[in-house]
Amino acid sequence: MQLSVIILNYNVRFFLEQCVLSVQNALETIDGEIIVIDNNSSDDSFAMMKQRFPKVKLIQNNENIGFPKGNNIGVAQAQGEYICILNPDTVVAEDTFVKVLAFAQKQSDLGILGCKLIDGTGNFLPESKRGVPTPFVAFTKITGLYKLFPKSRTFGKYYAAHLNENQTGKVDILVGAFMFMKRDLYLEMGGFDEDCFMYSDDIDLSYRVLKEGKSNFYFHETTVIHYKGESTIKDETYMKRFQEAMNFFYKKHFRVSVLFSLFMKIGIVFFSLAKMFQGKSSRNFGIKMTPKLYLLYSANEKLVDKLRLVLQKKVLFHDLKTEKMVISSSVKSKISTEVILDNEFISFKECIAILESSRNKRFTFKIIPKNANFLIGSNNSNERGEIIEIE
Fold first, then answer.
1. Fewer Cβ within 10 Å of end Cβ, the chain: N or C?
2. Surface-to-core class of residue 212, CB atoms within 10 Å of its CB (0-12 exposed, 13-18 middle, 19+ buried)
3. Hey, what CATH class is 293-389 in?
4. 366-385 burial string, b = 16+ CB within 10 Å, else e?
5. Which sequence spans correspond to the domains of the chain?
6. Domain covering 3-226: architecture
7. Do domains 3-226 and 293-389 have the same CATH topology?
8. Residues ≥6 apart with Cβ < 8 Å to 362
């Protein structure tokens, strides 16, 4: 078997459904398997998986055992030569794994391979590629120096500024939302360190792979949506675990002075609070606005009346049987507009391309996954996305 895709789920039932659907499509021409591990979700994730995806290997844990242990359990059941650790709040293109496999097979010293990640509005996520957060690099991140000198090799190491988002190349650290590697290497490294509950596990694994003399790569030729805010709500629990995670990484890999340790502790608290404020500020200042106009791209005219009833708003219908897939440029930029993409007629790859090409144009997006009865998307990467059921 070529590839095993490992998806660890915790209470994101609708995002999981869309993710698995996209992965199924992406594995159509590949000898592969999907393994979903559920960390004792309280929603109906497990029941949905059994009903909609009966052929997917499903593992149910009796408690939330964390990101590292959950993924390690999944990889232990994997049969593929390669594995892909994938977040449930992601959407892959139909050719993502074909492209990634082709690139990986050409590398003689492959460590971990990551790809371009975008959020639900099409914006590039800089954590797609990162440098080792040494004390100095962490200092540039916490103090914001990387923002003041975004192209500087010295101050831009945290987000691997030596590469732009459209350049493939070697990087140090990759994000756990999408990590592709050989299964044997993962097992040789002992997988994710289970002493870390979450947040620095991907940094730790990437760094250990580097120390083994392997090369980690950022691969820009395929794009994956990562809704991001679904993974974690930025609350007090987040702050506590983030601090614990960074302390874990530094104690494991670096020797630092007592003075610097104190500075880092203060910095981590500051950074964690800033992360929390990002999420809260979006709610307080209305970043997540209710659209005034909806544009439905589909070939199913019956959907229009259903959406108008559910959304209680005007829905303009673009019939894909007669129209080209072009986002309307006639909509005034001052009008809050949401584009609804019907996956029955628009591939996930096309959905991703539309998000990328329309970023920063005041559009928000929702997808109706094929054979699903809900809209799904996210207008802000700092908080949970939105699901609208249309039954």
1. C
2. exposed
3. alpha beta
4. bbbbbebebbbbbbbbbbbb
5. 3-226, 236-284, 293-389
6. Alpha-Beta Complex (3.90)
7. no
8. 333, 336, 337
Q: How far is CA 221 from the centre of its chain?
A: 16
160 Cβ neighbours under 8 A, 6+ residues apart: 129, 130, 131, 171, 172, 173, 218
**Full-model pTM:** 0.90
Report the pLDDT averaged over residues 89-95.
Answer: 98
**Among 245-259, 273-287, 329-343, which range has the highest average pLDDT?**
329-343
Q: In the structure encoding, which two tokens stand for residue 185, read together? A: 């290497």
CA-to-CA distance for 391 and 387, rounded, in angstroms? 12
Q: What is the pLDDT of residue 149?
A: 81
Q: Cβ–Cβ contacts within 10 Å for residue 192, how many?
A: 24
Taking the C-alpha atoms of residue 65 and residue 145, their distance in angstroms, rounded to an integer, is 36
Q: What angle do CA 71, 196, 125 make, to 5 degrees?
A: 70
Inter-CA distances, 129 with 108, 156, 171, 366, Å: 21, 11, 6, 26
Q: Is residue 119 helix, strand or coil?
A: coil
Q: What are the b/e assignments for 272-301, b being 16+ CB within 10 Å?
A: beeebebbeebeeeeebeebebbbbbbbbe
Whole-number pLDDT of residue 287? 43
Note whether 169 and 163 are within 8 A (CB).
Answer: yes
Closest to 327 in 3D by CA, of 341, 313, 345: 341
CB-CB contact of 142 with 266 (8 Å): no
